[in-house]
Amino acid sequence: MKKIIFLILMVLSFPSIGYAKGLSIGLGYPYASLKYDFSALAVEGRFITASGIKVYSGRGYWNFYAHKALKAFAGVEGGYISFNTLDTRGTGYERALFVGGEYFINHWLSLLIDYSPTLISLKHADNAAVKVNGVEFVVNIGLYLHFGGKTEGDEDNE
Q: Which of 65, 79, 81, 94 is 20 to 30 A distant from 135 in Cα terms?
């Protein structure tokens, strides 16, 4: 958690961040992210941590609907997993297709929610023969802090 707070404070300390339209920082349960929205497309890097599990992932978004304070999107995600719990440790990967929406509370804060069936593949570190594959259904919810001031059309979001 200290690393996440340090990363957020470091990013916020750069003055040019205030002029970066499309840039946002997301905080969800249990992830932190940095996202850049190009308009119809967006990219995001996420760091997820909980109970000895760490996931480093990248996402690509396609914003297929936008009206006033609501945006709908679909996309793909891929990530690297490392885990070290009480009785097992190892690595793996995850891949997902997702669909969701983002509601803009105002021009600098939004609530994002998405749903994804996620393929997770894990391998035990001490015994390479032990592998686990499966699909988990994941719901992500997070608050996003947007930088860069108002853009055209933001008057509708207030």
A: 65
